[in-house]
Amino acid sequence: MTSLTGLVEGERANAWLAWGLVAFLAVATVESLLTGAQLWGAFAAVVAAVAALPAVVSRDPGRMIEWEVLAVATLPVVARSYGLFTQVATYVAVAALALIAVAEIDRFSDAEMEPWFAVAFVAMTTATVAAGWAVARWLSDRYLGTEFLTTASALMWDLVVATAVGLAAGALLEFYVRRSASSDAGPAPEVGA
How far apart are CA 61 and CA 19, in angstroms? Predict the structure, then answer.
């Protein structure tokens, strides 16, 4: 009997699962745009486009990143749809997009990337976007009269959450890179062989 792990780890099965997630993101894009959530609609569209990019460029539908990496990027979209963890979902979304970009660079290019650099890249990208978002909210409060930033403490916690999410996504990426490296090396030789 074939194990589920063996079925999912195959390149063809991975492509099917990844394309299913891209289709889900396309539906989420339309749903978000129809319900007035343009920012989330744009995010879902960007994630779908970035995920499909290697397959489109190479004209090979089987050339997709691992479905697990793409599933991490769909979690914030699902959470937003149900109104769950909206603040954290925003930073998970940014970290997931950085995770996809690094995973695609690692898998589909000749670039050599040390695991520590990949972790730092994902964490720093998430923290940078969070800081930019904070500046945008401050400018909106100052010049448009909105009240996005209520206290300095809330802003600091926002940045702490974003950094923590970025570090967690970076750790997930390190696991992905190490797993990819061990699967590319093949099975370990037997002792004494």
Answer: 9
CA distance 102 to 111: 10
**What angle (nearest 5°) sits at the alpha carbon of residue 121, between those of residues 115 and 126?**
135
pTM assigned to the model:
0.72
Select from 122, 123, 100, 95 the least CA-distant residue to 48: 100
pLDDT category of residue 182 using cuts at 50, 70 and 90? low
Amino acid in the structure at residue 138: W
Cβ distance 8 to 14 under 8 Å? yes
DSSP state of 52: H
- pLDDT at position 183 is 62
126 confidence band (pLDDT: 50, 70, 90): confident
CB 113 within 8 A of CB 173: no
